[in-house]
Amino acid sequence: MASSFWKGVVGVGLLALAHAAFSAAQHRSYMRLTEKENETLPIDIVLQTLLAFVVTCYGIVHIAGEFRDMDASSELKLKTFDTLRNHPSFYLFNHRGRLLFRPAEQEASTVPSAQALPSNPLRLRKLENFH
Amino acid sequence: MATVSELYDVTWEEMRDKLRKWREENYRNSEQIVDVGEELINEHASKLGDDVWIIYEQVMIAALDCSRDDLAWTCLQELKRQFPDSHRVKRLAGMRLEALERYEDANKLYDSILQDDATNTAARKRKIAILKAQGKNTEAIRELNEYLEQFVGDQEAWHELSELYINEHDYAKAAFCLEELMMTNPHNHLYCEQYAEVKYTQGGLDNLELSRKYFAQALKLNNRNMRALFGLYMSASHIAASPKVSAKVKKDNVKYAAWAGAQINRAYQLAGRGTKENKCSVKAVEEMLESMQITMS
Questions:
Q1: CA dist A77 to B183, B190, B224, B252, Å?
Q2: Which of A79, A81, A93 is opposite residue B65, by nearest beta carbon?
Q3: Of B291, B233, B292, B295, whose CA–CA distance to B261 is shortest?
Q4: What are the C-alpha distances in Å from B203 to residues B167, B169, B182, B219, B297?
Q5: Is B248 helix (H, G, I), strand (E, B) or coil?
Q6: Which residues form the signal peptide (chain B) (predicted)?
């Protein structure tokens, strides 16, 4: 929602820039027709160009997304071994998760004993922190 | 059963962004991925566009972790239908076979991928993972070494090799792997800290001095790394308690250890301010620091 406003700003800036360019071209051809080659570009065209440029730059900065810190190590301050140690290409699946997280229907058929595992007590953990 | 979006009041865009964050930062919270991903696939597949395929892959791997073989199978079928001749999908099929402990079939599948494309790194890495899963650590180490001779820049593989060496208690080679990682990532405080821990484990005065220096480097890169702070305290105290050092070195290390102890105290005080148990926990930290007597054998 906010970004469409800034996209509008960039659009307006670019249009103004194009308009100033056309005005300058038209002024040049007018100069050529009236043979007054020594007149400089009117100041309002110059001002419009500069203003349009500033507005476009300001708008693009807002669209461009999150800025990152220049310091390479400051981004890493939040990284922990929890995620650094995970190597997705080498993931193994022979861990107890295969048994612990087995869905309830499979449990009912395999373990009919009195002290069967309660249906996934670990599921309660999910509700705590969805970080 | 309530859906994730109802329980936590999130939109499908937020769920998709969360999945992307977990994917890019290598989180292995498979239960959550399965819940969020399953709902995204079932309810919002049309809105996801081309993202849906990578989400299928992510959810499939998480489903294998959670023993949700039905979900893994459906994801695999969808991917096979969309990308019929893809090596990446074949690798996922191999991973499913590995999860079902059909290692021979998985190996055959990976060999067929490698016959088609000898440079496919993913299949080679899965073969090494199969060796690891079967407990054949020495062969896995040998294969991984051969792999790294060809693909020297693969940081994940270097870290995996260092972990394998640590499991085999071959700390010198583990230190070498971590040195490679530190060279390519000089700003990463975690590699410095892990290297320092390996050196500390190796023991001996030179290694202790080196470990103290690398703990200090890790702290320089990230002054909030508590593990490095504790490591600095331990290595400095260890050096100071050693009988073989000169008086000056002993004095310096006592100073370093005292500084590290003060920083630890301060960090615990700052962390616990505003809570009722602050005084007790600070006292506990002080007692713990005093009781960490290092006796040289």
A1: 19, 9, 8, 29
A2: A93
A3: B233
A4: 17, 13, 21, 21, 12
A5: helix
A6: none
pLDDT in tens, B92-138: 999 999 999 999 999 999 999 999 999 999 999 999 999 999 999 99
- Report chain B residues whose CB lies below 8 A from the CB of A65: none
Q: In angstroms, what separates the C-alpha of A60 from chain B's closest C-alpha?
A: 23
* Banded model confidence at residue B294, pLDDT cuts 50, 70, 90: low
- Amino acid found at B273: R
Inform me whether the pLDDT recorded for B59 exceeds 90: yes
Contact B4, B36 (CB under 8 A): yes
Distance CA(B219)–CA(B140), nearest Å, equals 34
- Torsion angle in degrees (nearest 10) through CA of B122, B128, B131, B136: -170
Asked if B93 has any chain A CB less than 8 Å from its own CB, the reply is no
Contact B27 A86 (CB under 8 A): yes
Predicted structure pTM score: 0.79
Buried b (16+ CB within 10 A) or exposed e, A48-76: bbeebeebbeebeeeeeeeeeeeeeeeeb
Nearest to B156 among A89, A94, A126 (CB): A89
Helix (H), strand (E) at residue B257 = helix B247-272
Q: What is the pLDDT of residues B76-93, one digit of tens each?
A: 999 999 999 899 999 999
Q: What is the ipTM of this complex?
A: 0.83
- Nearest CA to CA, how far is B253 from chain A (Å)? 27
